[in-house]
Amino acid sequence: MKREIKFKLNGEEVTAEVESHWTLLYFLREVLKLKGTKEGCGYGECGACTVVIDKMAVNSCLFPVMEVNGKDVLTIEGISGPGEALHPLQKAFIEEGAVQCGFCTPGMIMSAYALFEEKKNPDDEDIKEAIEGNLCRCTGYVKIIDAINAAKRGK
Amino acid sequence: MKKFEYIEAEDLEDLLSILWDFKNEARVIAGGTDLLSIFKDQYLLSYPKLVVNAKPVKELDYVYIEGGILKIGALTRLSTLLSHPLVIEKFPIIKEAIMTIATPQIRNVGTVGGNLCQDIRCWYYRYPARLGGPLICLRKGGKTCLAIRGDNRYHALIGKRCYAVCPSDLAIVLCCLNAEIIVVKKKNQRKLDVQSLYTPLGLSLQPDEIVKEIQVPCNYGFRQRFIKFTIRRPIDFAVLSLAGQLKFEKKDLSKWIITFGGISYRPEVVVVTKYFQKNEKTVEKLLEEIVRSVLVKAKPLTKNAYKIPLLKGLSRKLIHSLM
Q1: E strands within A61-141?
Q2: Residue B314 to residues A113, B72, B307, Cα–Cα distance (Å)
Q3: Whether A111 and A140 share a structural domain
Q4: Which of A45, A78, A111 finishes a domain?
Q5: Whose CB among A50, A60, A147, B141 lies 3.0–4.6 Å from A24's, allowing a Cys bridge?
Q6: Which ipTM value was assigned to this complex?
Q7: CATH code for the domain of A113
Q8: How far is B300 from chain A (nearest CA, A)?
């Protein structure tokens, strides 16, 4: 049975009909065709599906779509400001060489985005803790931490 | 993903009424990080039709101290507890444990009640439908625990027919702090100690019962410490975990309360009282007594005997860090 939900997605009000058992990730990728958010493991272990809900990083693969009703959801497609092609975090990831295969990148950036929502001036330990739930098999994390630091300085 | 219908409970009364009416046909979802993977993997033999979201029940989201007892609402998120001033100031061991639980993303949605009530991690029990599951193990009405003859490297040392271990790190710590759990259902409420929440074949909750509150007495010890051994540092369940408190009864009479996770279906507790002297001889005596008491019923399986020297080593580390 389809149910109606209303929520804010990347700053815009969305009304949609969904199945109760869908995850937010399924809805984003397969219905809205927002393919920036990735599915890695599907069990909250890799963080590739990270989105920001009410300013907190969350695994969209383990989040029931019904529960976003009334909430504010932000995905990688929605973080750049008006008239801005890329968010400072995205620019920093490119400039610091923090992207290799790129599969973890949207999730990493969303986790870093949530960190900046919580702390304006995070140190290296804060950064490491914030991306603890995001696996990267290419970079070895050093460039990613550099990029988040660079974005912090640029803010 | 197994299909389900979804409703939101308006308040606690509504939640308990729904569970009373539906019994086994309904399951509570709080953070949902475990429940959704249960629905994804379809490893159970039967599934409830209805999922009731308890998150809107705001009256179960609180942390405060009253009458010398820290009271934690079951729907308090792990991330809230992690940064709560009362936890940071009085119960650093709870913070220490939560830091090791899953990931920031999961802690942002996962709740205290959900962490205590999560399903076990045994790979035979959780064998997913997409790979040919479910497997009919003892927990699902089968004749035997499949881990006994299988790959049991992460299973229990103290088994009661089923060899799955308690997956909750918070349970190990709360048990060490002598916490009590308030369980409610429609028109009824009861109090359990942490160990009694777990039975060899599952939780001791009825289908219409939920964990409402955790009560932690504030007579905590002189020092408290949590140690978790995992294969991978973040995002992993414990191979072994230990929570310890050192209290002083009289001047030099020390009381060591140590709980162990990863060795049985519930937290296992050892309490040792000793005259305190800070030297290696005391450490060795204490260690011998603690390890002997906890392992008295241990019968290692084919692949998990390594947990015994590991437990000894971690116990020594714990004693030193509490001294």
Answers
A1: 72-74
A2: 37, 29, 10
A3: yes
A4: A78
A5: A60
A6: 0.96
A7: 1.10.150.120
A8: 29
Which of the residues A18, A51, A132, A148 would you substitute to probe the B interface, choosing the one with the greatest number of B C-beta atoms within 10 Å?
A132
Of B32, B104, B108, the CB nearest to A64: B32
**Contacts for A26 with CB less than 8 Å, ≥ 6 apart:** A65
What is the token pair recorded at A127?
Answer: 């950064």
User: How far A103 CA lies from chain B's nearest CA (Å)?
Assistant: 18
Same domain, A99 and A142: yes
Per-residue pLDDT of B225-277, as tens digits, reads 999 999 988 789 999 999 999 998 887 889 999 999 999 999 999 999 988 88
Angle at B79 between CA B168 and CA B68, to 5 degrees: 80
Per DSSP, the residues of B122-172 read -TTTT--GGGT-----GGGT-SS-TTTTS--TTS-SS-BSB-PPP--HHHH
DSSP A27: I
Shortest distance between the Cα of B252 and any Cα of chain A, in A, equals 39
Binary contact (B103, A63; C-beta < 8 A): no
Burial (CB < 10 A; 0-12, 13-18, 19+), residue A70, is exposed
Domain span at residue A44? 2-78
Domain boundary among A78, A103, A126: A78
Per the structure, how many domains does chain A have? 2
Per residue in B263-293, pLDDT (tens digit) is: 999 999 999 998 888 888 989 999 999 999 9
Name every chain A residue with its beta carbon within 8 A of the beta carbon of B108: 56-58
* Residue pointed to by tokens 């992460």: B154
Interface of B with A (CB under 8 A): 1-6, 8, 29, 32-33, 36-37, 39-40, 51, 53, 55, 79, 102-106, 108-109, 234-235
pLDDT band at B101 (very low <50, low <70, confident <90, very high): very high
Question: pLDDT > 90: what percent of chain B?
Answer: 92
- Identify all chain B residues contacting A50, using CB atoms and an 8 Å cutoff: 105
Tell me, yes or no, whether A102 and A125 share the same domain.
yes
* CATH number of the domain within which A74 lies: 3.10.20.30
